[in-house]
Amino acid sequence: MKTKIRKEMAPVARRVRAYFAPVDRAIGAPTVFDPARAFDLDAPCAPWIDLGAIDNFCRTPATKVQAVCRGAKAAAAAQFRSRLEARVEFDFREWGKLQMALAAGSQHMNVLEEAEDASACASGGTAVSAVPLAADSTAGELVFAAAPPFAAGDLLAVDIDYADQTGYVGTGIAAAFVRDPTDVQHEADYIRRVTFNVGRVATVSGTTVTLEQALLGGVPPAGAAAQKVVAFVDREGGSFFQEWSALFVLPEEAGGRVCFHYPRLQAAAPAQETAIEIADPLRSYALHAAWLALPVTDPNDGEQVVCYRSHAPVRKCGIF
Question: Is the peptide bond prior to 47 cis by the omega test (within 30 degrees of 0)?
Answer without folding.
Answer: yes
